[in-house]
């Protein structure tokens, strides 16, 4: 099983309303010293085995077509080595 | 500046409807070989400097009180080394 993780975050400079809401909520709960919060997505994909370089290209296509909004968001892909075939 | 990242994911065995929706959407876009998708949160906290062990305890409290639902979700905390004081 190849585990692939995609991180989707707002680009720097894009307002993150969910992060701002969390920052405000933390402050109202008494947590001092939180200067900023950004909330993104953490997406785990369980892919059928394949060559890592092909998988990366495929996952990049998924990000551009569905998982991220390239206008507002950045994405980062991490592919862990597949387990050896059994 | 200390950057702290919190990953919030559904516990194994808990149905993830957003992940299921993404899996279905990827399949309908023609992406074969996606056997499962889990969607979690990736939260970046910008904390005022402090001792790492105190920060970790503080962030664990934030997770239990606000950032995660301990009944359904797991969380993982990563604290990067703070920049040296200027």
TrEMBL record, chains A, B:
It is found in: Cytoplasm. GO terms for biological process: 'de novo' IMP biosynthetic process. GO terms for cellular component: cytoplasm. Pfam families: PurS (PF02700). It catalyses: N(2)-formyl-N(1)-(5-phospho-beta-D-ribosyl)glycinamide + L-glutamine + ATP + H2O = 2-formamido-N(1)-(5-O-phospho-beta-D-ribosyl)acetamidine + L-glutamate + ADP + phosphate + H(+). The keyword Thylakoid does not apply. Its EC number is 6.3.5.3. One of its GO terms (molecular function) is ATP binding. Part of the phosphoribosylformylglycinamidine synthase complex involved in the purines biosynthetic pathway. Catalyzes the ATP-dependent conversion of formylglycinamide ribonucleotide (FGAR) and glutamine to yield formylglycinamidine ribonucleotide (FGAM) and glutamate. The FGAM synthase complex is composed of three subunits. PurQ produces an ammonia molecule by converting glutamine to glutamate. PurL transfers the ammonia molecule to FGAR to form FGAM in an ATP-dependent manner. Keywords: ATP-binding, Cytoplasm, Ligase, Nucleotide-binding, Purine biosynthesis. The keyword NADP does not apply. The gene is purS. It is an enzyme of class 6 (ligase). Belongs to the PurS family. Pathway: Purine metabolism; IMP biosynthesis via de novo pathway; 5-amino-1-(5-phospho-D-ribosyl)imidazole from N(2)-formyl-N(1)-(5-phospho-D-ribosyl)glycinamide: step 1/2. This is Phosphoribosylformylglycinamidine synthase subunit PurS. Part of the FGAM synthase complex composed of 1 PurL, 1 PurQ and 2 PurS subunits. InterPro entries: PurS (IPR003850), PurS-like_sf (IPR036604).
């Amino acid at each position: 099983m190849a585990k692939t993780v995609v991180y989707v975050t707002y680009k720097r400079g894009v307002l993150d309303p969910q992060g701002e809401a969390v920052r405000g909520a933390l402050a109202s709960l008494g947590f001092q010293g939180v200067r900023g919060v950004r909330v993104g997505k953490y997406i785990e994909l369980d892919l059928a085995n394949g060559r890592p370089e092909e998988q990366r290209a495929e996952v990049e296509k998924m990000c551009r077509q569905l998982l991220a909004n390239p206008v507002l968001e950045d994405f980062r892909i991490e592919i862990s080595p597949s387990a050896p075939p059994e």
